[in-house]
Design goal:
It is built from five helices and 26 strands. By secondary structure, the chain is of the alpha+beta class. This is AsmA family protein.
């Protein structure tokens, strides 16, 4: 019996030693890290890899992964990469094995999101069940980037102090939108009543679009109500995606160019929808009040944002701006407003041709123009050319020029810089 007891003790000691060695091996960062990423990847339907790992178990456990890449299995391009990812999870969540979805903090250094790959993965995800996770210590992002087909948002800094489904949300975001020659640095504070399908959202801060030779520093205030997709809706229906109800935007801005500073105020109201990576605003109504170079106008129609900008607006200019080239009599002497129609499809910098129709007292202009060339011509005081850079047709029952009265006038304007093309 003594011999058998000694053998049993030796076996138990050997098993304990093996278990301790196995536990020590499992707790190595280069072993524990890939295991955690494999678990997370299996849950998300992704392949997640990292170049190096570190972890801490004292206090609140945390795992740090460096050189992280996440992609759909077999996909050539990642949907997310990051120089560093930190996830801190309380012991209560670990003991509950995921039943308690509380996370202490998430930090992302230099994350890059490929929007096309992210859309493909997200559209294939099944509907979520149960409450979203809670972030007690929030989300912190530095030097992030989101890349679209012809645009990107870089230098993203995001601070979300906490996230809980039953609490109001606050966030601070900074970054810069870039599309061709257009750049728009922004610094915005956002709030939400609480994360839900019918939440109220408010955004306030500064955004400063700028291009070749101009800047538009602006202060904005925006509010809207979110509404989730209708039950049973699909991407092919108008009820799919996230709807923006009672969207309201007001802005004070200054247009800075060679002509100096031109202050103006802008107001906007619309119903909108976010679907397939784009934003559609319809019906939309806007007002613009400026002086000198900036006109006073009202318009209604539809506006779309995706990889570019689409405009279909109808409205009227209250009067002809003082800084614009003077209209010949009797058009210039009239006090009547100028109804207009405007259509555009192209870059957010408005570098593509704009289709424009203007009317006043029986006279009509129907043609196309490019905003940058026309603005440069106005800034130059029409010194290089007496005619604006336009392509189109002017019809007027009467025009007075140098003491002569012309009746039944038809003028064709041709400019090589304004091509016909397919736009808008």
């Amino acid at each position: 019996m003594k011999r058998r007891g000694a053998i049993a003790l030796l076996v138990i000691a050997a098993l304990l030693l093996v278990a301790l060695l196995l536990l020590r091996w499992l707790m190595r960062a280069d072993v524990l890290g890939p295991m955690v990423l494999d678990r997370a990847g299996a849950a998300l339907g992704l392949e997640i890899t990292a170049e190096a790992f570190d972890y801490r178990l004292r206090g609140t456990p945390q795992l740090v992964a460096r050189g992280v890449v996440a992609r759909e299995p077999g996909a050539p391009e990642p949907l997310l990469s990051a120089d560093r990812v930190l996830v801190s999870v309380p012991w209560s969540t670990l003991r509950a094995r995921g039943a308690d979805l509380a996370i202490e903090r998430i930090e992302l250094d230099a994350p890059v999101v490929g929007l096309a790959a992210f859309r493909r993965w997200w559209s294939a995800r099944p509907p979520g069940e149960g409450p979203p996770p809670t972030l007690r210590g929030g989300l912190h992002v530095v030097d992030g980037r989101v890349s679209g087909d012809a645009w990107r948002v870089d230098g993203i800094a995001l601070d979300l102090p906490e996230f809980a489904a039953d609490r109001a949300l606050r966030a601070h975001a900074r970054g810069r939108y870039v599309a061709g020659t257009l750049q728009a640095p922004f610094d915005l504070h956002a709030s939400m009543t609480r994360p839900s399908a019918d939440a109220g959202v408010g955004i306030a801060g500064e955004i400063s679009p700028q291009g070749d030779g101009w800047q538009l520093p602006s202060t904005i205030v925006l509010s809207t109500h979110l509404q989730g997709p209708s039950p049973g809706s699909s991407a092919a229906t108008d009820d799919a995606g996230l709807r923006l109800r009672q969207l309201r935007l007001s802005s004070r801005a200054r247009y800075l160019s060679g002509a100096g500073a031109q202050p103006f105020v802008f107001g906007f109201a619309a119903e909108g929808a976010l679907a397939d990576g784009g934003l559609q605003l319809r019906p939309a109504a806007l007002t613009l009040r400026g002086r000198e170079l900036i006109p006073r106008l009202r318009a209604r129609g539809a506006i779309g944002f995706a990889d570019g900008l689409q405009l279909a607006l109808q409205g009227e200019l209250a009067d002809w701006p003082e800084a614009w080239p003077a209209l010949p009599p009797p058009l210039g002497a009239s006090q009547a407003p100028l109804p207009f129609e405007l259509r555009y499809r192209g870059t957010l910098a408005l570098t593509d041709p704009v289709a424009l129709r203007l009317e006043r007292d029986g006279a009509r202009f129907d043609g196309r123009l490019r905003v940058p060339e026309l603005a440069a011509w106005i800034d130059a005081g029409s010194g290089d050319s007496p005619l604006p850079p336009l392509r189109g047709r002017i019809e007027a029952p009467r025009i007075d020029i140098s003491g002569a009265i012309l009746h039944g006038v038809e003028i064709e304007l041709e400019d090589d810089g304004v091509t016909e093309g397919a736009n808008p």
